[in-house]
Amino acid sequence: MINQLDWILLSGRRAKGKRPTYFEDPDLEKTFAVLMALVAEVSVLRERLDTVERLLETKGSLNRSDIENYRPDLEAGKERGRATQAYISRVMRIFQQEVEALKADDLPLSEWVEKLAKE
Prior knowledge:
Elements: H1 7-11, H2 26-59, H3 64-69, H4 74-104, H5 109-118
């Protein structure tokens, strides 16, 4: 008999050590964690849909085992990688914009002194 994993039980397991935090507000931290979990799920769905589309294109029909056993070739893997990068970039764009804004405000000390002296 195959020992089946209880994925629901495993999904509730906690990592050892303190969970890293990125925001001061705990509710914002929880919201971000939920968002990232959903982003991961959508990413998996996108790859699974890509599998279905590729199999239908090549075979004309499919079954669940075709989907489960599909392994993309090198070119398909590269396409998926680029699509995933673009997807993550779109999702994380707001954070990237924040970093860019901080860098734009990151003046050398001498320029900060001049800026403050003018105010």
